[in-house]
């Protein structure tokens, strides 16, 4: 399941080379709220601090989440899968962890 999500995630990110929509929560996502995005970002920051990830990893991860959510509607049950997938892709793309 995670592989399928990562494959779909990469496919959408490959097609979407622009910045995320500034109002995607209101216009694209019907099941998510701005506060849910806030909780998601707080979790990403905590994980980055806990595992001492480089700052580029966090920036990439936030960008991937926003770009993905701008392009594809998801329900709140899939939000955890999106955040973990974005973190994995961010870690992979930012290079080796020191």
UniProtKB/TrEMBL annotation:
The keyword Methyltransferase does not apply. InterPro entries: Cyclin, Cyclin-like_sf, Cyclin_N, Cyclins_cyclin-box. Pfam families: Cyclin_N. Transmembrane segments: none annotated. PROSITE patterns: CYCLINS. Keywords: Cell cycle, Cell division, Cyclin. The keyword Cell division applies. Residues 17-89 form the Cyclin N-terminal domain. It comes from the Eukaryota. This is Cyclin N-terminal domain-containing protein. It comes from Brassica napus (Rape).
